[in-house]
Each structure stands twice: as structure tokens, then as C-alpha cells.
Amino acid sequence: MRFIFTLALTGLSLFMAAQTCTINNASADFCTTCSSGTNPALVNGVFTGTLRINTTYTISASCLATVTFANNVAIDIDKRNDLYFAADPYVQEGTTTTVTGHHVHGGLINAFGTNFTYSGPNTYDDLAAIMSPPAGSGGVGGVGGGGSSQLPVTLLSWDAIPTPAGIALSWSTASETDNDYYTVEHSIDGLTFSKLAIVPGSTNTSSVQDYTYHHLSPTAGFNYYRLCQHDIDGTINRFGVISAVAASTESRQTLSPNPAHPGQEIVVRGLDVQERSPVTLHHIDGRIIGSYPTAPDQSTRIQLPASVANGVYVIRHGRSSQLLVVR
Predict the structure, then answer these.
(1) What is the pLDDT confidence band of residue 204, given thresholds at 50, 70 and 90?
(2) Whole-number Å distance between alpha carbons of 151 and 184
């Protein structure tokens, strides 16, 4: 009976691995489309299986806040379509992710505040590596899909915001049990992390606690941060990876005008002629606003949306990035 039951489970696993969500329409809702059908890839907020993209598409931040990518995940980009994650996707620790495309030049995938392009024949190895967090890593991505309430610390928020003096890191907790301290870890590639700071915890509390740390010397471009919580008994719990961009002081890239006004046209000059990716405009937390092609004269023009709010934004091209002030 045990042998038969094992075979049944194996057959079920193979069946579940065939789950596929296909996006053919740019206006389709990811959470609705992928949870529909007789064998949906998205069940109870957990996505397992293949995501096939047949059009340039953006997965909304509101949907991503409710989704966890887990187990075996495959992302397949057809032709030269682009895929944008409007917020960092949460990927459960121990997940194996593959990312493939089907065009000689490939499409663009924007995730974790970074533009990913082909890293090999039909593959996006850099993104696949980030979205394959090993067991014990705490996973990668936003808090929304992380289900962190079962941990000794209930994490409410975990943010990284660029400032003129570096990158301001902050996090809040709803409750803490036997919490000794936190370590903040830093990475320049989202894969290899080193300890950046130690912040004392609040031991035992049921009230909201706020914590901050200012990284004064981030690397120009995108920086990745991981928060680790240390129990009194030595147990370590790792939360998801977040990213923020620090403007380059050596980039030849210039923006004009800067500051700018909502609805105004921005000219970006001094772009790297070897870089094939488009210029992208981001919110300060990495969410993409728009993508713009480069001109032969190494420049591009960006028409700011009239509805864009006053604040600080990021203009990115390849590994170069600049801060844009809108007021």
C-alpha cells in the first residue's frame, strides 16, 4: 500500500509540473489568468509550473504582493517580447527557476530593479540564479508573498530608499519573540552577500518596532540587501532580498533638464553605444514606469507622464543609472 501511495504521489508531482500559464494579451490580469482552468499554475497564491509570455507584459505590483513562486518555475519568453515585474517577485527558498527565450536577440526582462537580457543561447542565467534561492536563504523578493508571520519576528516592511548620502534601509516588525539581533547583508549581484551591519533586536515585544540603517558607501548602480534575524538560541531566519539603485558619479550619462516637471520631455545623452538594452524609467523602489529605445546618436528622449508625482526617479541604461528629480 505504501508503494502504491508513493507511486500516486510521484504521478501527481509529474502532473503538477505540467502546469502552464500562458499570457497572450498585454491587458490580462496575471492573478486571474494563472489561477483559471482545470490545472492552474497559481493555486492559493503559490505559482508552480511554467509562465509563458507571448506578448510584452507587466505583472502588476498588487498581484505580485499576493503571489509566491515556489518549487519548480519556468519562465518562457516568446520572440522579442518583454516582461516587467512591477514589484520584486517573492521566490520561496529551495525553488529552482529556469528562464528561456526564443529569439536571437531576445527580449528584456525587468525584475529586482534590473534589466536582464540574454546571458547565453536562449537563456537568462543571471535572473534564473537570483530566482533560485537555496534552502535556508529565506527566499528572495518582496515581503508580500513571503508568509513571514510564522517566524519569531513578524515583519511588516523591509525597504531600501536611495538618498543623496547613500541608501537608507528600514524595517518594521509587529511582534518579536526571543529576538537577539539583526544583521544587514549587502550584495552587488543579488547572489553573494557579505555582512554590512548588526542592529540589536527588541527581544520580546508585541508592539510595532521600527529599525533603520544608512548604507553610506553603496556601489554605483543596483545594490541588493538581505535582512537576517538571529534568535537568542542562535537560530537564523533570513528575509527576502530587496534592491535599490545608487547613482553613478563616473557615468558619462547626462539628463536634461534635471530637475524636470510632470509631462516634460527629458533628453538622456552619453549612452553606452555597446549597450543594446533600452533606457528605462523607474520609481525609486525599482518599479518600472516606461521603456524607451536609444537613438543612433547615443541619446534618447523620454516624455514624462503628466500624472507623474513629484519626487525622485531613476533613469537606467545597462549598468549606468542617474537620479531624476521631478517637481
Answers:
(1) very high
(2) 17
